[in-house]
Amino acid sequence: MLWPIQPSFQDKESFYSYICRASELNQQDLKAIYKLLGVRYRPNNPNPVYVDEMDEVRSTNLIVDNCVKDWLLFERGGGNADFCTFGKRFPRYLLSNKVKVCPFCLRDHNLINSEWHFTHITTCVDHQCLLLDSCPRCNGLFSWSEMLLSQCPECHIQWSEICKYTENFKKVEKLDVHKLIYYQINKNNKLELEQYPIEVLRLSFVDLVHVLSFFSWLLDRYDDCWNSKSIEKLNIFEIYEGIQHAGNVLLTWPLNFDISSVKMKVVKLFEKTRRIKFFQSWVDSVPFDIENLFPELNTQYRVERTSVLLEKLNKKKIDGKLELSDITFIATLNYLY
To answer: What residues does the TniQ domain cover (predicted)?
Structure first.
């Protein structure tokens, strides 16, 4: 055991949150616990382990609990390397420097969700509210601290009291996936800003392609979670579980697809995060209008695909078996054009 009282693991809890709870229960200094784990304590960075510390963590005999060791090594966002693999490792540039929390989650569970560390996560799916980065009473910015689990680190107001300030906040409307893609692809159209939900204004589709590829861990745990639902019933949060297939597509682009017009854009975008080799198509490709295939997207753009894939997509749509991965693929291509 690492310490006399070892708290149980909670679903979706961040490693930082777990260590804070362990520190509070055992009345130990947070810095001392990090030192015990063989990791430097960084008050402005909740993600614990850097590349140069991995060997030390793997070899230390102090961490006798393999679950804790694995969690430390594979925490989402851990490490300072600018690369990703489809698994549990993610690039650091997606991590938010701000502390964002859901007051209702902290009031009810006293733990920090690891998803809140990501820049593009701005809402709580359980309570349909925006995450807060400052106290609604004192306006002080939240900071990483053991106190954050129970109160505002600045004015020390309890989360139960903070929730009273936010109960009248407007609920965040959930968006269907096809609506989100519609908004993303039509950003260049002259729609009024108030027509865009707040989540859409804070994201770009390329961001989604990046972010969602780093959530493949969800599919490890909930393999058929989103596949079992119809596309129309998936909401904006569940798109994080499905669009990761678009990331896989970008890494395994079909050899017979002509991407010469988007090659420079894509290579420039991904050259620092992934090593992708693109192949010029020597196979005749068939142009088609996305709007005809997906009228709900209402887009002016056109892409080129092979006749085989076009027939496959058309058949899927006719049979009602079109998958989210197909739509995200098409939407990604539209954005790149």
So the answer is: 4-131
Detail the DSSP E strand segments found in 155-301. 286-289
What residues contact 243, with CB distance under 8 A and at least 6 apart?
Answer: 208, 209, 212, 213, 324, 328
Rounded Cα gap, residues 310 and 316, in angstroms = 10
Distance CA 48, CA 20 (A): 12
Per-residue buried b or exposed e for 272-301, using 16+ beta carbons within 10 Å of the residue's own CB: eebeeebeebeeebeebebeebbeebebeb
pTM recorded for the entire structure: 0.51
The sign of the dihedral angle between the CA atoms of 40, 46, 50, 56 is positive
Tokens 């309890």: give the residue.
158
Whether residue 15 contacts residue 68, with contact meaning beta carbons closer than 8 Å, is answered with: no
Q: What is the pLDDT of residues 151-202, one digit of tens each?
A: 998 999 999 998 888 776 656 554 443 344 444 444 444 445 555 444 444 4
CA angle in degrees (0–180, nearest 5) for 9-149-212: 65
Report the relative pairing of strands 302-305 and 129-130 from DSSP bridges: unpaired
Task: Identify whether the C-beta of residue 132 lies closer than 8 Å to the C-beta of residue 175.
Answer: no
105, 124 contact by CB (below 8 A) = yes
Which two structure tokens, joined as six digits, stand for 282? 């020597």
3-state secondary structure of 315: helix
Q: Dig out the tokens for 247 from the structure.
A: 């990331």
335 torsion bin: left (phi>0), alpha (psi -120 to 50), beta (else): alpha
